[in-house]
Amino acid sequence: MKKFNFTKMVASGNDFIVIKDKLAGNLFVLAKLLCDRKFGIGADGLLLLGKSKKTDVAMRIFNADGSEAEMCGNGARCAALFCGKKRAKFQTIAGEVNAEVSGKHIKIQITDPKNIKLNVPLKVCGRQIKINFINTGVPHVVVFVNGLDSINVDHIGSIIRNHVKFSPRGANVNFVEVRGSDLIRIRTYERGVEGETLACGTGSVASALILALKNNLNGLIRVQTQSGEVLKVYFRRNNGKFSDVWLEGSAKKVYQGEYHV
């Protein structure tokens, strides 16, 4: 019987299994098993931390369905806290990610967003709606709505996530309600989890940046997640392009354990 140590962590309601040991076997199958809330440890995702020649740590990110993700904002914040350094740099599929830790508050620098498209018509449930698209390390659809609480996120989110326009891999879907000049509330359907999560870091960044483009904002936007925590998104915008994009919020270790396979 094989065994390894793990740490359960959470950032803004997004929970992760963090493993530093080198694991053998099919990691996609293992990730799905570990993230299962009935037969495994249970989590939104699995973070595998290893050695890197270019950065402090190489981070592989697996979704709850076993698929591998290019980037995860809240996962990166958990990894930064796990490493125990005030400053760290991670290597991800999406690129290098800088992190700064101050107590339980962690800031990570997101790779510069790309593939930004505003007001794209999309037919959903027999209706024509306008969606926005941006890649903040992973692809995100942003839909502005009124009455966020009444939205069936799992149903409509699944339809948009699997829309042919975003094939073959699909996209994460964020439903956003504007609550103030620099405050939005967000609910996210996450690709790979295949359901609504309590928070999504890259989705919070995506939603904030789309709002900034639409309303000509710069500097800081606050994002209230479904968990109730308010994340902060810092950025610079010049001629429609973003740089120096950071996500700030809390993270914590929940427990440590030993898993037997």
What does this structure look like?
This protein has helices spanning 27-35, 73-83, 153-161, 201-215; strands spanning 3-11, 14-19, 45-50, 57-63, 68-69, 87-92, 95-102, 105-110, 114-124, 127-135, 139-144, 172-180, 183-190, 195-197, 219-224, 230-238, 241-250, 252-260. It has 261 residues and is of the alpha+beta class. It has two domains: 3-109 and 251-260, Diaminopimelate Epimerase, Chain A, domain 1 (Roll); 114-249, Diaminopimelate Epimerase, Chain A, domain 1. It is globular and about 50 Å long. The mean pLDDT is 95.
List strands and helices in order, with pairings.
Blueprint (H helix, E strand, L loop, with lengths): L2 E9 L2 E6 L7 H9 L9 E6 L6 E7 L4 E2 L3 H11 L3 E6 L2 E8 L2 E6 L3 E11 L2 E9 L3 E6 L8 H9 L10 E9 L2 E8 L4 E3 L3 H15 L3 E6 L5 E9 L2 E10 L1 E9 L1
Parallel strand pairs: 2-3, 4-6, 11-12, 13-15
Antiparallel strand pairs: 1-2, 1-18, 3-4, 4-5, 6-7, 7-8, 8-17, 9-10, 10-11, 12-13, 13-14, 15-16, 16-17
Features:
4 helices; alpha+beta; Diaminopimelate Epimerase, Chain A, domain 1; 261 residues; 2 domains; 50% strand; 18-stranded mixed sheet; 18 strands
